[in-house]
Design a protein that fits this description.
The chain is mainly alpha-helical. 72% of the residues lie in helices and 0% in strands. The chain contains 13 helices and no strands.
Length: 306
Amino acid sequence: MNEMALLLGATLSAGTVLAIAGLGLLLNERAGIINLGAEGMMLVAAIAGFATGVHTGSDALALLAGMAAGALLAAAFGGLVIWFNTNQYATGLALSLFGAGFSAFVGISYTQRQLGERMKFEIPGLADIPFIGPALFKQHPMVYGAMLLTIALAWFLYRSRAGLVLRAVGESPEAAHALGYPVRRIRLAAVMAGGALCGLAGAYLSVIYTPLWVEGMVAGRGWIALALTTFATWRPARVLLGAYLFGGVTMLQFHLQGEGVQIPSQWLTMLPYLATIVVLVLISRNPTWIRVNMPASLGKPFFPGH
């Protein structure tokens, strides 16, 4: 029973990285922009956050540094694809490759560095409840923050005027432009906000979840977060549930190894990525369902005045 509680708690913590990044990418795609550079943004944010944490000793500043790094890279990406109309897919891949190389270069001197003593968090009283307490109420505040972010983003998209405008831009930028909305600026704001969330996920990974810096430590989470948006049919609550599903698969491999299950470690390491492929294949069997839920202008350039 105690082991299951620990597995559930670890699932929530692991899923938080994917949830925050996935929500950021969902915000991008709701505005009609697809950013394949999540992996690179998360890596740069991870080293930015870790370096800030090493030099300042402040987790809050480290997370802010990660958000700033993610937003800055997203702004560069947004400028290229929104104003210069470069191909979104190629530009995103270039950003991902740049982030991997740049973070590896900058992080050389931080590989052996360590952060200060990590704080232990728990909610008094609730943390002592059998099973539920260790699983749900001994988490870092960022875990609960991801849940609140999901609720806030759902409210923003479906209950606020600004969210309605954002979705309109993602569905028909020409119509939004005809009504007088600054489509390009709205898209850039969405891209930067999404980049900031990807940056927050990267910094959380290196500062809170691990906490250490290793080259390539994001290890494909950016791609899984990208797949999550399709898996969730562009709905925030489903992104959160999908993140916990993939987080659970990730933690399951460590649990099985700890139990001494005689399966090659390479096969266990493959589990999260195999699950991602299986889910995408299942979803792709119904293209009509994807087309109905997908923002109509996703990945398409917008030329004002044409």
